[in-house]
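Q: What would this chain look like folded?
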Amino acid sequence: MNLLTNPLYQAVVHHADEDPPRLIFADWLEEQGQPIWAEVIRTQCRRSQLGQMPWENPREYQSTLQQIEKYGPAWMMGLPRYRGVQSGLSQVLGATFVRGFPEWGQFQSIEALRNAWTRIPNESTMRRFWIGISTRNEDRDNWVRWNADEPTLSAIRELDFSPSGNGFDPIAQNAWAESPHWSGLTGIRSRFSDWDESAWRNWLIAPTKRGIRDLVIHDLDFSNSKLQAMADPEQAGRWRSLNVAYHPDAVSSETLRDLWRSPAVSRLEQWVWSGEQIHEVWFRAMEESSAPLRSVDLPNVRISATHLQRLLQSHHRLQRLRVPLANPNDLSVFQQSNIARLTELEIDLGWQAGPELEILAESPVCQSLEQLTIRVHRCPRSIRERLQQRFGDRLQLVIWER
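A: My prediction, written as structure tokens:
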């Protein structure tokens, strides 16, 4: 049977965010004599559910990568395979397997994606693409022409766009932003440092971009005006996930406050903020927001006990939290009963792990936790063993030492 037309595979394609169809397909593969691929699917699904990073259970992670490297080409089902890099142009760099299936296509030029496109079936798992573009003028011209007449772009669901060097000139920027063929796009990851305001607004406001719900921005020059465009009334109820990395001095606290007060984030579920300080001006607006936040990631902020308590009390739907803590006293926040019932907690400690961590084992928050990740400079073996004994089988405990 052609796997691309297999009903079990099509269930994976049409329910891309769900694990059960993948696990059912894995069972079918094992029955068909393909236990290695079946095990890769199960392992990657399990690691994804646990949010495990490569350094967590690294032996399992490396073993899975080796299996994909060895057998992956046979699992591509007609999709473009890894061919190496020749002369630095027009070559497919590879495909990344996500939860057992090829999902991220990686190309270093427009031409590479265009040449491979005819071999990417419409009904397949590969619908997310990374494209790296050089700054050569002819590449820019090709980019403009390709956007004007490539209707198959509507099949792309998520795009990781990384222009190198100085990026595109204004003509190319707006041609990219105004292309009518991005109607299927739901998420974009990019560096917009070199994009002018009109191109940025075209990305956000154009009718063909209304499907974009998830935004990851790596832009050290991110400006107030760009952030204001995200809070435009036309964006009401739009954003589901925002991950914005920028220089902390580039955006004012008042602009962040206005974003949190805008209807654009009324349905926001995931917030990742890479700033190094919490300013009361915007934090209070986030605290008062009606956004149904389920995941908050503040990787660079040594959050105070007061701010941590306010966050957990104001957003009771919160399920996942990642925060660095400044001192052992901050752990007392988790002993309170009127805070969010988290299922996943990741804390980055600014001190060596000690007996004070046992306070978590008796805290109300741990009654609902499914996974607890603790990152420390050092965790003595005796403390690690005591924590494992206290938590038992109640949850997945991961302790990572730098």
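Residues 5 and 123 are 9 Å apart (CA to CA).
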